[in-house]
Amino acid sequence: MNLGIAGKRALVTAGSRGMGRACATALAAEGCEVYITARKVPILEKAAAEIAAATGAKVVPVPGDITTPEGRAAALAACPAPDILINNGDGEPPGDFREWDRARWITALDRMMLSPIEMMRLTVDGMMARGFGRIVNIVSRSVKIPQIELGLSNGARSGLVGFTAGLARQTIAKGVTINNILPGIVASDAQRDHVQVLVEMEGRPFEEIWAERAKRNPAGRYGDPDEVGAYIAFICSAKAGFITGQSLLIDGGEYPGTY
User: Fold this and answer.
1) β-strands 59-63, 84-87 pairing
2) Residue % of the chain over a pLDDT of 90
3) Domains of the chain
4) Is the full-model pTM beyond 0.85?
5) Comparing C-alpha atoms, which of 188, 248, 250, 252 is closest to residue 214?
6) Which of 77, 144, 226, 238 is the most buried (most CB within 10 A)?
């Protein structure tokens, strides 16, 4: 299927590894000009070079922390008029809410809610003026299946989803869609970091917890980051212009509800 986005400019935050990198790769394979941000320069530059070599696309590494004004300014200096914006980033690690003070909550809100909203604020009007835009927030299934140890994510990401629901209805008539992707267990570095924290909390071996989580999923496995990347590429496509304001699960069927 020709997704109709060749030549579009795509800005992918936290695009050097995991689902962000998979998304950048899928968009590059569709002919997009891709800009990826990350904080760790060697990993970022290596990812950009590998994606460019694999796809033949222009892939530009943009060092910086997207949760800071300086990081956002650097991203938009490199790609001032993105047609596609992928808001992605690490969540906060699991823990006990009794140990989270106000500063910890503010950090979580900055990372998982306020920074993506700021990136939308800085880009959405330009997209509407040009008549095309796709914004996808990589969120988490925790907004539909809250896990107590992920309380920071439950709260901050739910705030982002709530905000998006209102904005998405204001932009679609101008050709701009805004959607959220809710991944379940995906075999990424972030997932491994999550399980490592569970190891420390529960005192059980990593392999035991990792296998247990896969077995509990109806698919009997972890998702592949490339599956998430392909899904997002379609949501960004010219074929998906009637999809907006949605929070779309990709979790192997683990969410138990009908709706």
Assistant:
1) unpaired
2) 86
3) 9-184+224-250 (3.40.50.720)
4) yes
5) 252
6) 144
